[in-house]
Amino acid sequence: MKQHFQNLVEEEEATIDMTPMLDVVFIMLIFFIVTASFVKEAGIDVNRPEASTAAAKPRATILVAISDKGEIWINKRKVDVRAVQANIERLKAENPQGSVVIQADKEANVDKLIKVMDAARAAGAYDVSIAAAEQ
């Protein structure tokens, strides 16, 4: 009987309480969800020109698209060329380290591209790139 009681005590001492570990796992999950950066899209598909020196831009957070019809899209919204600077200033305030990438269609007007680049620089974004497809 004494041996049986001693076995029960040893079994109970060997169990591990999982509640604190589950609390830590849920806190870590919430932390990773809150701090994750999500991919933002400009709003339209653009037929980008090809370039042999194209390189990936991992920290591009402000995407501006120019369609072949001259439409400008930021955050899935069509934007007038006069409102590009204000939109980029707002996005730059949300993420100061973010760079601006302009996704211009290869049939897009070069004048529109230059106006968007000027507006981005006027908004304080000096890291402005033009997206191209790799050859």
UniProtKB/TrEMBL annotation:
It comes from the Bacteria. This is Biopolymer transporter ExbD. The keyword Phosphoprotein does not apply. The chain crosses the membrane at residues 20-39. The keyword Thylakoid does not apply. One of its GO terms (biological process) is protein transport. GO terms for molecular function: transmembrane transporter activity. GO terms for cellular component: plasma membrane. Belongs to the ExbD/TolR family. Pfam families: ExbD. It is a single-pass membrane protein; Single-pass type II membrane protein. It is found in: Cell membrane. Keywords: Cell membrane, Membrane, Protein transport, Transmembrane, Transmembrane helix, Transport. InterPro entries: ExbD (IPR003400). It comes from Planctobacterium marinum.
